[in-house]
Amino acid sequence: MIPAISSALSRVETSRIDSGMATGLSSGIGASGVGKPDFASVMAQVTTNAIDTMRNAEVVSVKGINGEASTQAVVSAVMDAERTLTTAVALRDKVVSAYQELSRMAI
């Protein structure tokens, strides 16, 4: 999950620089550029990668129970799933915190 987030963030940074956001010339990530990811597509890709990591951990765990996978492979897959879950919970907490902050703002 961490490599997926790192690669997604590097694409966002590249998009920001290419679209002029670093100098304030653009109104959003991937505002009108072709092939430039927007926030929603980056988050969709990160979510898809997280789901794939969790599914892989389940498959490898079942293979380990059946004796088709080594203990090292099972532990590695489970640790990847744990990292993914920790990252997802941290992101959820940040989103909830941001929403609560916005809801406390005076209109």
UniProtKB/TrEMBL annotation:
InterPro entries: FliE. One of its GO terms (biological process) is bacterial-type flagellum-dependent cell motility. Keywords: Bacterial flagellum, Cell projection, Cilium, Flagellum. The keyword Lipoprotein does not apply. GO terms for molecular function: cytoskeletal motor activity; structural molecule activity. It is found in: Bacterial flagellum basal body. It comes from the Bacteria. The keyword Zinc does not apply. GO terms for cellular component: bacterial-type flagellum basal body. Transmembrane segments: none annotated. HAMAP family: FliE. Belongs to the FliE family. This is Flagellar hook-basal body complex protein FliE. The lineage of its organism: Bacteria, Pseudomonadati, Pseudomonadota, Alphaproteobacteria, Hyphomicrobiales.
